[in-house]
Amino acid sequence: MTGTRWLAEYAWLPDRAEPTADVLIEAEDGRITAVTPLGGTGTPTAGVEVLGDATRLPGLTLPGLANAHSHAFHRALRGRTHARGDFWSWRTAMYDVAARLDPDSYLALARASYAEMALSGVTCVGEFHYLHHGPDGTPYADPNAMGAALVEAAAQAGIRLTLLDTCYLTATVDGEPLAGPQRRFGDGDAQRWADRASAFTPGRAHALLGAAVHSVRAVPAQQLATVAGWADRRGAPLHVHLSEQPAENDACRAAHGRTPARLLADHGVLGPGTVAVHATHPTSADVTLLGDTGTGVCLCPTTERDLADGIGPARRLAEAGVALSLGSDSHAVVDLFEEARAVELDERLRTRRRGHFTPAELLVAATAAGHAALGWRDAGRIAVGDRADLVTVRLDSARTAGVPPVGAFFAATAADVASVVVDGRQVVADGRHLSVDVPRELRTAIEAVTR
To answer: What is the pTM of this model?
Structure first.
């Protein structure tokens, strides 16, 4: 890969409260080698025509966005489950789709889903993966065939992937066995999960392997340490659904006499390498525990509102020292701008007060914190040495016209993303994915698993 230069009309640089005008960004072999502000923080200058060899990026250029929590196959549910029901009825519809997938159909659906993410400015995704085996629970000839399909899907979509191989063993906190479509999720016990996960090596520069505990419902307490130990020995990210539903908290207290967060901490799951997903209903003690252990939290506001899960205590988590990241989860919406502003706007609804997060804090949640949560600590900033991930947002659309660049997270949508560069390679140009016909492929892949 040869050297490349870009001239950003505005770029949001690390530790800046707002974007900087006229920034020359240079990269070699997919890494940023120089970042040179040419004009300051005011109106872009007219004296940069001498840089004719640089690719111009009109609008606001951000670091690559990180979608830290994804279930790729949930994209097939969009628009099909929103009219009625609760989380549990939604889950039944989700299981219906899960039962129909095989490695080939999952590759097609995930490729299209990840390409939609690329169009929205996502350069890295964390896939919380538990569709391991055949529909009746029988392993494929390659027991990691479904995971391999996801790795290939991300490659074809042009984004990086952290495959969070998920341990999922039981249906309830008190150990009810998996049944029906859930059977394909399970490996029998945590050691067999670890053996299967250890046998899988992505072997691709764009992919990392991490681990996940599905939830305290799905992994018996005495087996949690096996999963945590597997991740710790490899320095791999470890994610876990936490307190998404009040019913989860109630069931955990009934079975174990403590909250899910306390149970996870007692078995070594929480810590600096761990990200708790949702954390919508933690107690005050849980919030303190998450902060004290250095555990991150991935908020998924558009899914949490779609499923009527509730509003998590984002500001209290941040004040406790918890690093916040963002995910689109069920993909009711794939728009990290919407996820980011919802963190602030949902806090306003909950507290009836404005001004909880600055735009710069929302930027970090959508970029650097998300990449770090997925094990990519060299991404998410426009800085020398970081990966050359650049997302350029139009400032002349019907949504962004007249909006100052600092206001992008409160005005722009995924539709305003004009250009996406991943590891120095152009993936999206002029709002079009360069290798995937996203609408056509989404339609075809979804029809194949929802007929």
So the answer is: 0.96
b/e burial code for range 332-369 (CB count within 10 A of at least 16 → b) = bbbbbbbbbbbbbbbbeeeeeeeebbebbbbbbbbbbb
Q: Give the tens place of pLDDT for each residue, 217-251.
A: 999 999 999 999 999 999 999 999 999 999 999 99
The DSSP letter of residue 355 is -
Catalytic residue among 165, 187, 286, 329: 329
Look up 278 and say whether it is catalytic: yes
Q: Which domain holds residue 384?
A: 4-63+379-433
Query: In this structure, what CATH number is given to the domain that contains residue 8?
Result: 2.30.40.10
DSSP code string of 421-445: EETTEEEEETTEESS--HHHHHHHH
Lowest-confidence pick of 86-100, 223-237, 364-378, 404-418:
86-100
**Cβ neighbour number for residue 201 with a 10 Å cutoff:** 9
Catalytic-role residue among 129, 278, 331, 433: 278
Contact 219, 163 (CB under 8 A): no
Known catalytic membership, residue 329: yes
| Whole-angstrom distance, CA of residue 362 vs CA of residue 159 | 22
Residues 219 and 96 in one domain: yes
CA–CA separation, 332 and 403 (whole Å): 27
pLDDT digits (tens, 9 = 90+) for 382-440: 999 999 999 999 999 999 999 999 999 999 999 999 999 999 999 999 999 999 999 99
